[in-house]
């Protein structure tokens, strides 16, 4: 649960930025310290601690001035999740940026709380021999033996997620994804998967996903 600042009672009384941003009153810090002492004692003694009450779910009470998503569309010959800009065929090196783009729905259809809009995945080394850069596999290639491991999501510093509205009238959208290859990354075969939701004009929100072709990092 997000708590913003935690100020001392004295800072809270002054009501400068930090005090005004302490959400749960002047005794927030005192109560936190009390609970942390209980937790530390339980950890030291190996005791079980009751979960306690769950925070209230307030998402349905939020007020927004943004208009809702009416519907999503895609150009003729394309579908949601199709990759329109693929990774290059030549190998990437550490420090390079991988840029890809997908036909997408509006990301406000599902904010993907506790999830991710995309993953960067590496083919497990023991399966490298069954794979090629040109192969476009959805996880079941190579006789269903390929195993991919996630190395980055939209929560990583080296990734970027950009939404582009291509047509307001027809509700076309593109999602541009970037991954700056870290210095400590292992060489191998990689791919990027995008996950999203699109809204039908007559009602309903539906999931989709798309996958790039495989690319190599040296």
Task: Give a concise summary.
By secondary structure, the chain is an alpha+beta fold. The protein has 4 helices and 9 strands. Strands 3, 4, 7, 8 and 9 form a 5-stranded antiparallel beta sheet that branches. A 4-stranded antiparallel beta sheet has the order 1-2-6-5, with no helix packed on it.
Contiguous helical run count: 4
Top-tier CATH class of the largest domain: Mainly Beta
CATH topology of the largest domain: Immunoglobulin-like
Structural class: alpha+beta
The number of E-state strands comes to: 9
Estimated share of beta-strand residues: 25-35%
Compute the separation of the termini in Å: 40 Å
Q: In sequence order, what are the helices and strands, one letter per element?
A: HHHEEEHEEEEEE
Radius of gyration: 23 Å
- C-alpha geometry: extended
Total tally of structural domains = 2
**CATH superfamily grouping of the largest domain:** Neutral/alkaline non-lysosomal ceramidase, C-terminal domain
**Largest sheet geometry:** 5 strands, antiparallel
Low-confidence runs of at least 5 consecutive residues: 130-143
What's the helical proportion of residues?
10-25%
Q: So, CATH architecture of the largest domain? A: Sandwich
Mean pLDDT: 90
